[in-house]
Amino acid sequence: MQTVVNDVEIRGVYKQIGKNVILNGIDLQVKQGELLTLLGPSGCGKTSTLNVIAGFLDIDKGEVFIKGKKVTHIPPYKRGLGMVFQTYSLFPHMTVYENLDFGLSLRKVPKEERKKRIEQALELVKMVGLENRYPRQLSGGQRQRVAIARALVVQPMLLLLDEPLSNLDAKLRYELRAEIKRLQKEVGVTTIFVTHDQEEALSLSDRIVVMNKGIIEQVGTPTEIYEHPCTEFVFQFIGKSNQLEGKVKTVDSRMVCIELEEGVQVLVESKNMMGPERSYSIGDEVKLYIRPEKLTIQEQESEPEIFYYNKYNASIVQMNYLGSAWEIELLLFGKRVQVLQPFVKSDWKIGAEVTVGWNPSDMMIVKK
Amino acid sequence: MEPVRYDDRQKIVRLSTEIVTARRKRNWRKYIYCGLLLFPLVAFIFGFFVIPMLYILYLSFIETKGETNAFYSIGNYVHFFTDSYYLHSLWLTIKISLYTVVVSLLLGYPVALTMAKCSPRVRGLLTLLVASPLLISIVVRNFGWYLLLLPNGTVHQLLISLGITTSPPKLLFSEIGVVIGLSNAYLPFMILSVATSLYNIDPSLEKAAAILGAGPLRSFWSVTLPLSLPGIVSGVVLVFSMSMSAYVTPALMGGANVPMLPVVAYDQIINLLRWTYGSAISYVLLGITLIMVTIFTRMMEKGRYREVFR
Ligand SMILES: Nc1ncnc2c1ncn2[C@@H]1O[C@H](COP(=O)(O)OP(=O)(O)OP(=O)(O)O)[C@@H](O)[C@H]1O
Ligand SMILES: [Mg+2]
Fold first, then answer.
1. Where in the numbering of this chain does the ABC transporter domain appear (chain A) (predicted)?
2. CATH topology of domain B78-309
3. What is the ipTM of this complex?
């Protein structure tokens, strides 16, 4: 039997400051070489989790292992990790070269090798030729690159990134995001990336950890998180969503039928149940969620070849052009519902009657 | 967007010129107000500082021979730099000032570090404590030390009863006493100026150093200390120049045994009535202090950590 060694393992981490429970039982495994993202709203404990791994935060309960070694009470400077901070945290009184040299000289690496490794690291982040600049003389993006190089040059067991892109403008963020992904795969270092930007998390990660109020809501690949959220929180936090409410009419192992109002019923696949309680009985009050891009608008009485289980009449209330798509607001069962369409037809106008349809497998259901 | 209509444009132009002229008028008025508000202080400084200083400078270039004979010369300065008593006094002044700087830096830095590390509430309290001696007149504080440091006084008895020494050194009327008095007087300035620069250090820099493998000592030596240099420099300059020109403490706690230059100059002017020579001494003191402070700050600003001063 082959046992997979986890690079990082956290068990039952609990931390309280004053009356404030910051981490409430965190269990987490990070596999070797993977890029794991901690995602969650502000104040949910992402930085705290990272600080626990780095050793900056003493915990009340629980254990932390790095490469199989228990490090719960080992100070940060003995853990041999690399970290990039939200504010770059380059040493302002040192040149780029000296910043990179700091960690190497502490590790007593011979001078010649130090030089070689610093050159390599700068090449990796495309910063060759700026060795003698001071951080003051660099742009935000350049500082961030140097910060990443400084963390990587010591060849850390683990790379920790705390919202490294949040101080940059949108375009640069997009560029550096791709670059971090490339770097991570090139170097192969196990990486934990903190962000509150769901798009960043989805595009970057091998796996995502969604956190909320000091607990982990779900761990999974980006598609798992997006397509099969386990909880209502995860569904709402990632992507946009429409919400409907109703009562369970019938339930079997494959489908749940829900009555929204007198005579209006929708079908949802049973495996799409979210939340802790997953057995439904007739008459239960439930909430239904569906993402705007899973809804499709058809003109009334046309295109019979596309068949949806759920198909209803609605009227267009508003149309917004987003560039890459149209955001259309519909009035469906007396509620406003958003639909994302790649194109619009000429007779779709505000007030027009259309048919909207979706697949039972695309709708999520949770008990009220 | 709708195109701007012609009359709209005219209106815009008119509006913007109105704003500009209004601002110009207001600026003139502002300057006049500022001038009026500043005038009393400027007049005061000019009348009671600049003119006397110039007068003293003028006096220092007058040499007197006998009762009536007076003429312009640089004789006073020549006299100062050829008489070993005055040169010794100058050296003593510099030496004691340097000791004071070192002592207040060594005592003050840890306090400043504590202030930078603790919570804002405790920090406010500590700031109050550190600054509180400034509320008491320096004469009163020096008399306090005077009593403590007297031969066979409290400190002597303490040293003997603790068994540290059987024949304690002379504290009062000695260089030690003056250094104690001066360090005590100027410590708050050192602490507050170092603390201010420590507050400005981004706490995540220490975390960055730690994660790169630097223990607390190394992190202090390579990150905290260099980044607090601006505070150290301003503290050193403050304490040094104040020590160089201190009169009360050396006079009270050094007496005739520690003739620092301000005391000597005072003596020349008040007791011996040699105004011109006393003036020259004052200007030598001023010049030497300025030169030393300038060299020191230049050295720091051009040195290894010049980046910190930008
Ligand atoms: N030193 C502290 N004392 C008290 N509470 C703290 C302290 N540090 C953090 N907290 C609290 O712990 C919680 C988690 O903080 P943390 O910094 O981990 O959040 P985060 O997920 O990183 O948020 P953000 O996205 O805003 O950075 C927050 O509610 C915060 O108020
Ligand atoms: Mg954070």
1. 8-238
2. MetI-like fold (1.10.3720)
3. 0.82
